[in-house]
Design brief:
Chain B: GO terms for molecular function: ATP binding; ubiquitin conjugating enzyme activity. The structure holds 2 protein chains of 2 kinds. Chain A is mostly helical. Helix content of chain A is 58%, strand content 3%. Among the domains of chain A are: 88-210 and 227-246; 775-901, Cullin, Chain C, Domain 2 (Ribosomal Protein S5, domain 2); 921-987, Orthogonal Bundle (Arc Repressor Mutant, subunit A). The chains are: A mainly alpha, B alpha+beta.
Chain lengths: 991, 171
Amino acid sequence: MAAFLSQHPIPYPQGRKRIFESVFPPSASSTLPTPLATPTSSFVAPPSQPSQPSQPPQTPTPSHGYNTRHHPNVTPSPAPISFAPSPAAIFARESRAWHLATTYLSFPADPFPGSLGEYVQTHQDPTRDVAEAIRYLTIHHAEDPTPETSLLEWYTCEVRRHFLAHVRPEISIPTEYSDGARLLEEILGRLTTAQSIYLFRLRTYIVPEKKKGRARRNLDSWDESDDSKVQAFVRSLNSIISYSLPDPAWNKLVYEKFLELCGTAVGLPGGDDGDDDDDTVLNDGDGAGNDSMSGDEDVYQGVRLSQQSFATETDIDGDIVVDDDGVAIGNPKDMDGIDEFDVYRQRAEEKADEKRKKRKEEKPREKARKKVLEIWAAMEKLGVGGGGRRGERVINTLLTTYINAHFAGVWETPSKVGDDLNRWVEHVLGQLVLDVLFSSKSVNSAEGWAARLKKLSPRESFRASRQSLDSRKKGAMEVDAGAGVGEDDIKRRKEDLESWKRIAIGRLGRLRVGELFDIVVEWPDSLGGVEDLKSYIISPQTRLHLTTTFTSALSTRLLHPAAATSDILRAYISLIRAFTVLDPRGVLLDRVSRGIRRYLRERDDTVRVIVRGIMSESLPDGSEDAEDLSELAHELGKGIPATQQGGGLEELDYDDLSWAPDPVDAGPEFRRSKGLDVVGSLISLWESKEVWTKEVAAVLSSRLLGSGEWLFEKEIRTIELLKLRFGETTMQGCDVMLKDIADSKRSDTHIRAQEGLRMEGSPEIHTKILSRLFWPTMKEDGFQVPLEIRELQERYERGFETLKKKRKLTWLQTMGTVEVELELEDRVVQVPDAATWQAAVIHQFGEERCDKWTISQLADNLEMEESLVKKAVQFWQCRDVLKEIGNGVYTVIEDLEELEASTPPKTGVAAAEEEEEVTDEKKRERMVVEQFVVGMLTNGGAMPLERISMMLGLVPGGFSWGQEELREFLSRMKSEGKVEYKGGSWRIPKA
Amino acid sequence: MDQSAESPNTSSSGKSTTTLNGGQSVSKRLQTELMQLMMSTTPGISAFPTDGNLQHWTGTINGPEGTPYESLTFKLSLEFPSNYPMAPPTVLFTTPMFHPNVDMSGRICLDILKDKWSAVYNVQSILLSLQSLLGEPNNKSPLNGQAAELWDKDPKEYKRLLMLRHKEAED
């Protein structure tokens, strides 16, 4: 019977071929046997079951409807053909069957439609004899597959050919694209469709299901299938897919998209949501994971039945960045363009109603998370996951971005940043990774688990980011080797989390190092930031990184001419404090402060600003210096930290049980922990103490002389504290100054009583008697004091000389204050603290019967310097006492109404005074330096600038000029012909 | 400038203390002298520490007018002992010199640098004494007999020999 059937000739072979060829053009493999080549052969496929009568082969089955259940259920014949036809007949039959099958199974030369559903709808079911031919071939060659005859092998090649020819061009990535998300989804959709169609045909015709009765065929359950043939096919297909993807562009696309989505999923953009959101995610993390998993299943299982392609699905979900209210969730910067965004919004509005019904109240983060999982799963399925590197990069960037977004500038104390970060890594990031790891259906398979684990192992990612490709491979191998199941995995997951945390701490540290300058400036409100850094600087590398970064930040942001000295000093003080907290041993402080110390030494007003800060209590209120660094006075009051008092003998302190060697990264000149001693650090800026005492004496003298008080407790205290720093002898001068003032009070009372100076009607006179040697040099431009004052002074002198034998008084006429009361025609002007020279000038206007004076007349009369007279006149002009009536002639304003005519310049007296003082001091200093330079060059011969600068250290009182200042000064001397410059050296010109 | 009073002359105390205090007081005194010298600017004399070492100075004297030394400059080296000013500094001419009281290696015969030394003298007074010594040599105790002889007899020959010997210090 069977033999008879097999003898049946096939009618109309030629016609059929033509029909076939008209529908399906000859495929690449059409060199295989054709009916033409074997015209005499006859072919009838063996019946599936004897009981099932086969339909007449002439009748094609035009089954247009798609019937998914029928084809797979065409069960193969249980028995091979048991007859023994002639070999030629067998060959002919096979050739015919092969031809029919391959012709049918070849893919048309067009791209695939948008989805598997569409494809299935349009494609034609095989005719009866084609089906039989396929069945014949599969049964026959199932057991001994050889490349020439295996239909599966042929199909694999055909799929490859078709993919490369028709699908690959569609997945190219343009060099510029505006909407990466859509592009990625489109590509993934195309690939998924292609894969589904390939698989569908494979499943339907070539490797039909062996099991019956599956309620739903699951197309993407390939990895659960134990059919090794299917798996091999999928592997081959996936390798060709991943090969076809344009490499850098694809990687970049996936990376960007992943980053964006993961970023949203782990709460990147909004820095303000913080803990609450973390907790929410944490709480519903499990639920969400499950949701998305089941969602995935729906999506992919539904591909066939619900006619819903991946692409259409993504279209609906594409506007994931738009909330239901149309509010942007994503960080707009993360979007690829505003235009796209608008499109999204538009579409979102169109579909708003639909969506509202459809969607549960999902948070955008949950949506993003779901999206990530979808894309990840799709890529997994396609085998284009990209392995660990993609995951690594994403995690790497996520960590950095998250840390930068959330913790930049957050320095509250006590710092919760570390804990927050740990929690975030553990629960949010870890959860996401876990979802990706476990969401796949391969969760049960140990192999799949390990493979996925490998892809995202941070250990690998850690190596990848730091080491070469080789070591990365090795790392992956280690992971492979260690990949196990059960407890090992859990343990390893923990390890992974730990190393993520470590990396996170490292990133946080880098962020903080970058911010360190601001942290220091903000001190002490930024204590938290320093606390974060503590956990970072645990290795020499990180410490080095910190110091180098910070030093360069210092020099670019602070150590330049635009910064005020007081600002630099304040930053330095904060720096000392912050670094003492950061590194109590002081090594880091030592290293970072070198630059700033060197710079401070070059500023010529550093000493002045510091001393005024230290002595701010002694300065008059409202003076700008007093406010600037008044904390220094407070610091000084704290005394010297105990650790420092050992001094140089510290090394020999055998009783110090807490002694430890210097840290390894300490510099050669590192001095042991100075403790938190701000004043000490500042004082040690200059080796020489004279620099300081000179300035202290200047401030002290102006304070002692400028005040009418006699008690200077604050000053005494400050000087005593300074003695602790500088030693008794250095501060001797200041001691004498204080003592002079105290003595003056006594001798003043005594002399006045003795000489009977307290007379009615005559001005009172009080003196402060200074020991000239111990006071800073003062201007001694004397002038002719009014006669009655002169008399009083002479009597006072006599009194003093009887009190102190062999001592002589020299009057500093310009120093001192006078209480002036001017009786004018319409008013009385009272000036309680006019300077003596100011009083003398106005006295001139009242005394003589002449009330019109020019400046030079006044100067001649008073024997006073013209500049001083000018200042005095200005002073009285400002008080509306004097006015200029033309040609430099001044007169008294007796009546204020006269004033209308003139507009007195009320500006700049104080400024002029200040300037004068500075230049006086400076002038003297310049003169000294000039003498020294001349002496030096005369005796030592020509010298380069550096040597001169060094030798000027001999100048008593210290030499604090920078080299630039000195160079400028020498140039000025050169222009005056005092020195000359030749061959890199300065010298005295030869006569 | 009565720093000398403070300087310890108690040799009975420990040796180390003496040197320590002595060293401090020497540099203090020398620094003061330097400042004084710089500020006074006596014409024709000058001195400055060599290489920043306060105890070794280089001095410069211009030859006084009306003498064979006119318009010549002479360099000196001044070496201060650690008990200065209790002991005189060692002063040498480093410029080759032709003078009755100066020998060929620059050593000077001057009473105030030897037995007549007193702590009130200072660098300035030494240099001034040497400057005047150039114009008024003490021919009774010459170190350079030839110079002493020629000083009165043959000023021309004296000048010639002086110029032969004299060499400006190189920078």
